[in-house]
Structures are given as structure tokens and as C-alpha cells.
Amino acid sequence: MKAIKTGLIMFAAMVVALPALAIDMTAPVREVVEATARNWGEGSSGSEEEVFSEDRLKRLFSADFAAAFHAASKNPPYDIPEGETTGFPFDYDPIAQGQDGCPFKNIRIEDDGDGQVTALFNNRSCFQDSGDAADTVLIFHVATENGRAVIDDIYPVIDGNSGNSLKQDLKAQGGE
Length: 176
Known about the structure:
Blueprint: H1 2-21, H2 27-39, H3 54-60, H4 63-73, E1 105-113, E2 116-122, E3 136-145, E4 148-158, E5 161-162, H5 166-173
Antiparallel strand pairs: 1-2, 2-3, 3-4, 4-5
Helix pairs in contact: 4-5
């Protein structure tokens, strides 16, 4: 009888652990990159979807990233319009990595393991002197929070090297 109880307890522990194994670490990255791509699509105005909406900040980003985003929104790099208390904390698109760009081509999302997801895409091919424009590459640090995958930080890859942490930039701008 004791062996059966022990076996049942072990089985129950494995069943509880299974959902954690099934978490798709690429899902939040894919949603953010694809929403940004739609904003840069042919004929778009660039503001069809708010990539950093309250809903997405709650669902797709860690609590720490969302807090840094909110704090930095109180001190954006431009004047806040009268009657408003916050603004977008960047003067560029941090996913597209610029103020100008082209429709995204050849989007690839790769789970590198250990909470690192890499997004690669070409969003410079429409520029006149683009030639063989290099892919834009972003490294997302994805964590598990409350049983779901969330983006905790984003690092652009510049000339083959990891650039500044987007979350650290937000925290510096927000006064942390």
C-alpha cells in the first residue's frame, strides 16, 4: 500500500510538472515581432498596433520590464502633450531598431535554449543603398512568470555584438 501511495505521489508530481515543460518560450517574442512587422507592412501608417499596449505589457512582458517601461514613460525623450502624463519612452521603434524601415521579410524566431530567443528579420531591403542588407537581430531574454513565458529583456545585436539592454535603458530613463 505504501508503494502505491509513493507511486501515486510521484505520478502526480510528474503530471503537475508537465505543463511547465510545454511552455512555448517563443510565443511572446513571435507576437511582438509579428505585431511590429504588421505596423511596418506595405501601406501601413506605422501605428496600427500598439506593440507595448497595457494588454501586451501584462501578458507578454515580465513585471520588472513592465515597471521599467511605465517609469520611463513618465520621462519620454520628447515633450509630453498637454493633458497627458506619459508618453512612449523611445524616440525610435525598439523592435524594428530605427525610425525608418521597410516591410519585414524573412522573419525567423529561434529558441536558443536557457531562456534566450533570437528574432531575425530583414527590414532594410527597401533602402536605395541597401545592397544585401544585413538582418536585424534581437536577442530576447524570456523567463517564466506565473506559469507563462514572458519577455524580461531585449538586446539588439549590432555588428555581431550584443547591444545595450533595453530594460536597463528604460530603468535609467525612469530614474532607477
